[in-house]
């Protein structure tokens, strides 16, 4: 609905002109391209923040909550709020 408000009905008609399988394949490849950024996660805490953010986004189906949880966990880890043995 918000995409229609921003770009108008022309963008929606363009998206409907492609088959769902092609749009799904394009989405999968763009997701894989974005996932290449995770190769630079060398510390376990950074990888944990990334996985918590992704898991929250997928589990709650809310990107804003996933971002908030990931940002909060990253801040807590940087401030050493959790004891690491």
Descriptive overview:
The chain is mainly α and 85 residues long. The protein has 2 domains: 1-40, no CATH class; 41-85, no CATH class. Helix content is 75%, strand content 0%. α4 (44-60) runs antiparallel to α5 (63-78). The longest helix has 17 residues, at 44-60. The termini are far apart.
The radius of gyration over CA amounts to 18 Å
Q: Unreliable segments (pLDDT under 50, ≥5 consecutive)?
A: none
Termini gap: 49 Å
- Count of discrete structural domains: 2
Annotation field: number of helices: 5
Which class of secondary structure composition applies to the elements?
mainly alpha
Shape: elongated
Task: Give the fraction of residues assigned to helices.
Answer: over 70%
Q: What's the total count of β strands?
A: 0
Characterize the main sheet: none
Helix-strand topology string: HHHHH
What fraction strand? under 5%
What is the averaged pLDDT score?
81
